[in-house]
From TrEMBL:
This is DDB1- and CUL4-associated factor 11 homolog. GO terms for cellular component: Cul4-RING E3 ubiquitin ligase complex. Signal peptide: none annotated. Keywords: Repeat, WD repeat. GO terms for biological process: proteasome-mediated ubiquitin-dependent protein catabolic process. InterPro entries: DCAF, WD40/YVTN_repeat-like_dom_sf, WD40_repeat_dom_sf, WD40_rpt. Belongs to the WD repeat LEC14B family. WD repeats lie at residues 311-352, 354-387, 402-436, 527-568.
Amino acid sequence: MGNWLSSVFFNFDSFLFAVTGVSFDRRLYLRAYQLSYNRNYYDPSGLLTAAAQIAATERMSKRKPSASQPGTSGMSAYNDDTDMEAEMKSDVSDWDNDDFTTSSSDDDCPIMTKEQEEQMFERERQLAFRGRLTVGDPESFDQMKSDIESRCGGCRPSTSVALICLSREIGSRAGKLTTNKKQPLSSGAQVAVNNSFFPNSRKVVQKIQSKTFCCQYVKDGRELVVASQDEKIRFFKKDAPYEKRSNRYVLQKEFQVQACGWSILDVALDREGSSLIYGAWVDAVFYGRFTEPSAENPPGVTWHTMRIPDEYEHHMAVFSVKFSHAGDEVLCGASDHSLHVFDVQTKERVVNITNAHEDDVNSVCFGDESSHLVFSAGDDGLIKVWDRRALREGDHHPVGVFAGHRDGVTYIDPRGDNRYVISNCKDQTIKLWDLRRFSDKTGIDATKKCVQSQQWDYRWQPAPPGLCQPIHGDTSVLTLRGHSVLHTQVRAKFSPEHTGKRYIYTGCARGEVVVYDLLSGTVTNRLKGNVAVTRDVDWNPQENEIASCSWDGTTSVWQWDERKSHVTSPDSDNEDSCDEFYNDVVEVRKAPPKKKKKRASTSAITSTRRLRSAVANTFDDFDDDDFSD
């Protein structure tokens, strides 16, 4: 249940589900239990009840797979969220009055029995674990699936690695057998083999007594950068393969930043790894240039402060920072609702888009290699696309807007093909957008209205019901559900090129790394291990390795371990949690055999006897007078 535990300490007097159109004499009230906690007594059933009530906020009935939607190439799709009310009506009509117990309150409201609560909790748990994909634009989704299949060589998850290697050895190309065995695997076959060895084992890089906020691979995956709330940025380097402790990260260097406020919120490095920027609860972006360490500058970092003019003189936070692809400009989004672009050489602000959003700007990024397109997302629930060429001419209007979320957007990530971008949101969804299909005014107004009507705070409250209902005018290609976005700005990203960009992976408030498969439309992996929210994740650009950082202070890397797929937990029989039960096989050393005493050879014995006889004869020749004084 993860961070649902933080919600247990709230008292839910009652929870109202207004079911419209139900042939009931009165509306259905589901009264939550008052969970009392003291140090001397703990009732596990009470915790289960509270968790069930929290889980029930999203939907009340078991979801059933529907027929494949048109244009999805036979992929198993799930029902749309609009059928939730009909299923609730069906469930409610099946309940008899005897199914409810009578409460002792003045309202005499019916409550669910313990058996019904357990069934509801199990339905919600299975739904959250399985994940859910809803297609909004079948045509665009089919085109993206075709692109993924071409990158993966048309391979499905059932592709046999042995058959691929056999085809390579016998030189099979286009169904013809040849004698050429020196041709390497095709790019699609390489991706298929790579995806067959998915990360499944967790290795802890470092554990500190502070929340970790950001992690990022640099220098083609050879180093890992981590920023935490203790005002420090740490660099970890992977051991060389020839060393004994290979595939392990060791602390290379760490340094304390100049200014931090509450915490470091975002960190970015240029492609060469020679410069660094970070944002925090300070009205400035801090730029660092790496130099050789010296007595005057032991960390080897020269800092420059790029101030953001604050005309209102209030406390401001820089939530997101990014380098341009050339490394000559810095883009940032802040709590002043604006976008800022700085020149690295002059350290001056060259572009300022005032009030780019109606609320905090939580995430920014460059959309293409030329850095002409700029993406931004904020707490107003909108994703906006800007053109730098138009900004130079003084046109500070977005070229397009994506609308469809019901709450603030926490992170955006482009696919790198100048077409698709994903957004992670506080409405517990990830949406995929197509740059060729922007939203119209109807969708934008509907999104603003939904966001402004939200009355909950994701930092300490569970997600309310109704977030799964689609918005009129939503132009997203698809919507993914199955992870939790609470407490902080959880990030979601596309998998790198060597996976065929087949996956979307994200952190989770339950301490997991959740990986969605765009071909199957389900959650393909849940990498568990953290006990607090996993805020940031990053996939190694060269290897099948995922880094994650959590608010429990743990920085971890997930790698493939062949032992994980063969050893199961003796308690749960679950391969996903078997690593903690793994015991190394101790080699039993056998005692060396006793050495047998070798008998002297016959020739040696004969020689010894002759020597003794000669010595005796010599002494017999001496008289007693020969030894006199």
